[in-house]
Design brief:
10 helices; three-stranded mixed beta sheet; five-stranded antiparallel beta sheet; alpha+beta; binds zinc ion; about 280 residues
Length: about 280
């Protein structure tokens, strides 16, 4: 498998658009893409997801509104003053300017409207596929829960990384024909866990991926070690309970299993099941 550690990390941090230019996406294309997103992610389609095309101006206004919902202006002002006081920026207002100018995404999914939006005139098939995976995550896990974490900075960052990482793996790695498999499992009560198993060319690739995931999650938690108590029944090598999400990471030779679910025990048992220990 091609190494994608830098791609994973940058996608988690920046959620960059992936597509090349061609013709605009029709409603029929959007339907097909939703079916592809469902097949790759293992998440069945519960509702149709409208893909709305918007002129550049209204699209960027929407993008900014979504940013402000996840990172409220009051929190931005606080951070802006803090950075200036620490000497990280020369004057106040720098953060807002940086946030607005770095917004390059031309497709987004809004879990409140339950619609995907694309800037008109652009073909963003790969980016739409990524956003449709978010739509399916939303239909199964309710992504509005991530917004409820916004008062807790570390939990919020880490939950966003879980959601973003899953979509990036599905649309960017599995969708790009790198192999591996993604599946959804349900326990007797019907709660769902997503499991992604990836095959790597060498154990070294898998090890690098593991280090990158651990470093990122620890960074998000601002902790020296994964935020996971030793008493929790987790046989995998790395486990986190982050806000509404449990994440379990397991590696065996050249294979990696990453499970995301509502319960740590459920995610852990699935990761062990797909990657037998020893
Ligand atoms: Zn995303």
């Amino acid at each position: 498998m091609r190494r994608f550690v830098p791609a994973l990390v940058s996608a988690v941090l920046a959620a960059a658009a992936l597509a090349a230019a061609a013709a605009a996406v029709t409603p029929g294309d959007a339907k097909t893409l939703l079916r592809v997103a469902s097949r790759l992610s293992g998440l069945d389609v519960r509702r149709a997801v409208p893909v709305v095309s918007e002129p550049a101006k209204s699209f960027s206004a929407r993008r900014l509104k979504l940013l402000d919902r996840l990172y409220p202006p009051s929190a931005q002002s606080y951070d802006d003053e803090l950075y200036a006081a620490l000497g990280l920026s020369t004057r106040t207002g720098t953060l807002r300017k940086a946030l607005t100018t770095t917004q390059k995404q031309r497709v987004l999914y809004d879990p409140v409207a339950r619609k995907a939006y694309v800037q008109a005139g652009k073909d963003e098939r790969d980016a739409i596929l990524h956003e449709l995976v978010h739509a399916l995550q939303d239909q199964h896990f309710d992504l509005r829960r991530v917004e409820l974490l916004k008062g807790r900075r570390d939990a919020s960052l880490a939950a966003a990384a879980a959601v973003e990482g899953h979509s990036t793996l599905v649309a960017g790695v599995l969708g790009a024909g790198h192999g591996g498999r993604s599946a959804v499992y349900r326990d007797a009560e019907g709660s769902a866990t997503v499991l992604i198993a990836l095959d790597w060319d060498t154990p070294r690739d898998a090890a690098q991926w593991e280090e990158a995931v651990q470093a990122y999650v620890n960074e998000a938690f601002d902790a020296d070690r994964p935020g996971f108590p030793a008493t929790t029944p987790c046989a995998a090598i790395l486990c986190w309970q982050i806000g509404a999400h449990a994440i379990v990471f397991r590696r065996d030779g050249g294979r990696t299993a990453l499970a995301l679910g509502p319960s740590l025990a459920q995610a852990a048992s699935l990761a062990v099941e797909i990657v037998p220990s020893g």
